[in-house]
Amino acid sequence: MDKKVKTSVRNLVEFVMRSGDIDTTYISNKRALMGIKAHQKLQSDGGENYKKEYFLSCETEYQSIIFEVQGRADGLIEDESVVTIDEIKSTTRRLDSIDENFSKLHWAQVMCYGYFYLKKEEKESIRLQLSYYNLETEQTRRFQKEISFNELEDFYFSLLKGYLDFSKLLSENKNSLTQSIISLDFPFPSYRKGQRKMMESVYRSIRDKKNILIEAPTGIGKTISSIYPSLKAMPNNLIDKIFYLTARSTTKEEAQSAISILIKSGLKIRAVNITSKEKSCINTCFKCNPKDCKFAKGHFDRVNDAIFDILENEYLIDYEILKKYSLKHSVCPFEFSLDIASFVPFVICDYNYAFDPSAYLKRFFDFPVESYVFLIDEAHNLSSRLRDMYSASINTYMLLDMMEYFTGKYLNIRKSIGSLVTSIEKFRFLIDKNSYYSTYDELEEIEKKVKKITSSMDTFLEEEKNKENYDEILSNYFELNNFLKISEFFDESFVNLFTSYKNDYIEHSLKCLDTVEIFKNLSIRAVSCVFFSATLSPIKFYAELFGGDNNYKIHLNSPFEAKNLFLANMASISTKYSQREYSYEPIAETIHEVIKSKSGNYIAYFPSYRYMEEVVRIYSEKYKNDNILVQDKLMNENERLKFLEKFTGSSSILGFAVLGGVFSEGVDLKGSRLIGSLIISVGLPGISPYNNLLRDYYNEKSNSGFDYAYKYPGMNKILQAAGRVIRTEVDRGAVVLIDERFSSTSYRKLMPKHFSHIVNYYDLESLKKDLKKFWESEDLS
After folding, report:
1. How far apart are CA 494 and CA 250, in angstroms?
2. Would you call 120 exposed, middle or buried from its count of C-beta atoms within 10 A (0-12, 13-18, 19+)?
């Protein structure tokens, strides 16, 4: 039986010694932004004898448990007489208010490092140092202690004692998981076509520590085919934890469902689904501080008992389970879920918790003590999401509004904001008739002014917490800080974009154009990244976005018979922008004739809300008896669910939805819940300054600018929408594309193999005739 428990020094110390409240004030965010630079400054000031980020580890057996604990001391200073371990802490507190007893946790951390060093080097004593660095004054105050090996050993074993019961639970859970994985059979009686190949490829990529791109059409069973082999890699010590990363809540549910099936098949796994902080909040108002939230007050006094309770009694921990235990123990559900994630081997979460510079989970990725695999679902979305994560903007409307709040002794902030507005306004005369101007030069003047504003706002935010509009000011402060954070990444793959709007304000955006180098740095957080989607064509394009040709790549064919899918293109209709107003009536008529061919549920997908609304207007006037549902721009999650719930096996509904939206991807309407879709246009993203800059960037890089910025993303949306129709081997359905461009060779080349039987139609009567035959053949069979 494996009785080894791995953790970091920080996690051990915080788990055993933490207490008190959650208080996510601006100061903690400020520290997160500036703390790294403070560490770097003191480390560089340490001189040639200062060894920074010094790795230390210790394996200790205590009460039959083997504790493997590791960490990095900020510094190790060696001179002739004594060795010093240095731990740096950044703060906004006045240094004269800090004494050597300021934080037991800080001393505990450096004491662990001291013990590890003495044990390894077989020495009797060491000097420990805490260095407090004030972020505003840039002054440092240091405290030192000379401590013997015996004192440190006694302290360290007291920590292990406090961690013991929890460690025994973790060890028991890990061993039961390992045994269950070894004996776990595939949870279905047979493999679907291509499924075994996908699983073998996933396992091989983990074993070889490589990334892999998998294009697997609907029906392969991508979710279970990525999870099952990843689990099988665990007993062989290839990985310790699986992160299932998704772009949408619907795909998180699919991952949960797969884990539930495996648990019913005998898998003894603890898994948690992380819901966003705002969605998981159970307080009456969304304010994370002890004054406004009873769950934040004393959270750390109670959370360890809550973790022990839930890990002892639950396996699949979704939001409802989290809520139940959060109410039972009076703890914050979001922070609770993050703690649970530290102690379970399977985590379901959004992309941003692994990749976003402002939201990634530092507890896992800044200093990993385990080996991870990233299972990246709907991977076709990742590049655009990364570009969004690494972009930021500020605008003169927000800044001018902010100025009104700073009066009296805060007039200096008002003046600083005014100076920033002036700097941005200088670009107004460069903005051309297209309402934008771009430059690839780094604009240090603007960055310095933003930095000055955020620094000068600290006193205001500390002293004026009861001021009206405080939350709005705080939100603006975070926007400015995010702008600064993104500016640190600025290089030749970024652009400054200045845009003017009708109400005369100017927006200054830092736009990321290319995430290849960014993702190379992010991907090393995992042993292997498994990118999978039904639509990763052309695969060379996506391979380049995800780090180049070094990745493994496989394409799987559709497991479904082509005869079950009627596939057509109404090639007589042009949806080009210049022809759109002439297309509304023919499109409405085509939709009506298609849904008349067989009673049931259909969705018509459009490239934009405006286009959709024009056709809906004509359609609802002309075909008043048809039962239609229309996607609304402002639908919340509950309204989206209600929209989908109306598509039942016995209903006859025509839905109108937008390509690339929530109803065109990640939606699983099996059987007669959806028997057909009509897809209008080739799905090109709207022409915009940013998309044109993307086009120009990739023209310069690979001479494929239009394809990279417009054509490939558009085609991906088409294939995703088409994939909503046939979900199982017994489904039959019709997909009708509407755009003359689909008949061209360049678009046919982008269509997958299972689209090879598509037929172009140039008159509606021929389409109606063949649709009738298709549905009649179903009745005959």
Report:
1. 32
2. exposed
> Where in the chain are the domains?
4-165, 192-269+346-390+515-558, 280-344, 395-512, 562-780
Report yes or no: 267 and 407 within 8 Å, Cβ to Cβ. Answer: no
Name 396's bridge partners: none
Give the tens place of pLDDT for each residue, 330-364: 999 999 999 999 999 999 999 999 999 999 999 99
| C-beta of residue 511 within 8 angstroms of C-beta of residue 494 | yes
* Nearest-10 Cα torsion for 164, 166, 167, 168: 90
| H or E element at residue 683 | none
Do strands 241-246 and 372-376 pair parallel, antiparallel, or not at all (unpaired)? parallel
- pLDDT tens figures, 644-672: 999 998 999 999 999 999 999 878 888 89
Confidence at residue 36, expressed as pLDDT on a 0 to 100 scale: 67
Torsion sign across C-alpha atoms 655, 661, 664, 669: negative
Q: What is the pLDDT of residue 779?
A: 58
Q: Give 54-107 pLDDT, tens digit per residue.
A: 999 999 999 999 999 999 999 999 887 889 999 998 887 888 889 988 889 999
Q: How many angstroms separate the CA atoms of 436 and 499, rounded?
A: 4
Residue 466, pLDDT score: 80
Q: Class assignment of domain 562-780?
A: alpha beta
Check if the beta carbon of residue 761 is closer than 8 Å to that of residue 734: no
3-class secondary structure, 54: strand
Which residues lie across from 75 on neighbouring strands?
52, 86
The CATH number of domain 4-165, selected from 3.90.320.10, 3.40.50.300, 3.40.50.2030, 3.40.50.150: 3.90.320.10
CA dist., res. 244 & res. 213, Å (int):
15
The rounded distance, in Å, linking the Cα atoms of 193 and 189 is 13
- Return the closest-CA partner of residue 490 out of 599, 391, 558, 601: 391
Residue 434 has pLDDT above 80, yes or no: no
Cis status of the peptide bond prior to 187, with omega within 30 of 0: no
Q: Give the residue among 584, 600, 587, 665 at the shortest CA–CA distance from 631.
A: 665
506-512 vs 494-500, strand pairing mode? antiparallel
- Identify the residue whose tokens are 């394009």: 541
- Beta strand segments in 501-653, E: 506-512, 528-533, 552-555, 565-570, 602-606, 628-630
For 494, the 3-state DSSP assignment is strand
